[in-house]
Amino acid sequence: MPDVSCTLAIAVVPNAPRSEIVGWLGAAVKIKVHAPPVEGKANLVLCEFLADRLGVPRRAVSLLRGDTSRRKVVRVAGLTAPEAHSRLGLG
């Protein structure tokens, strides 16, 4: 069985009152995270939030690009892009 994974473009809004998926911002999924953008805290919360929403282990979600940017690319192991979009409620 081949390894299945996908990448997701994410537009992050840190310091939100709660973590939530807002919708689309262009081709990126816009996500608010309840964490400050310092010392990687927003990145950690983003990955944990995505793993929870996608129903995959935390280790299946990794940040590929955008450590210090609001525009990020994450890799999700074990899901195709359509499966990930469906689980996030994005169709």
Description:
There is one protein chain. Helices cover 23% and strands 35% of the residues. The model has no long low-confidence stretch (mean pLDDT 95). It is built from 2 helices and 5 strands, in the order βββαββα. The protein has a 5-stranded mixed β-sheet, covered by helices on one side. It is α+β, with helices and mostly antiparallel strands and 91 residues long. It has a single domain (5-87), classed as Conserved Hypothetical Protein Mth637, Chain: A.
Task: State the total count of DSSP E strands.
Answer: 5
Would you state the CATH class?
Alpha Beta
| Main sheet overview | 5 strands, mixed
Strand order of the largest sheet: 2-3-1-5-4
Average pLDDT for all residues: 95
Q: At the fourth CATH level, what is the homologous superfamily? A: YggU-like
Please trace the helix and strand order, writing H or E for each element.
EEEHEEH
Question: How does the SSE layout of this entry go?
Answer:
Layout: E1 5-13, E2 20-25, E3 28-32, H1 41-54, E4 61-65, E5 71-77, H2 81-87
Parallel strand pairs: 1-3
Antiparallel strand pairs: 1-5, 2-3, 4-5
Summary, kept brief:
23% of the residues lie in helices and 35% in strands.
Descriptive keywords:
91 residues, alpha+beta, Conserved Hypothetical Protein Mth637, Chain: A, 5-stranded mixed beta sheet, 23% helix, globular
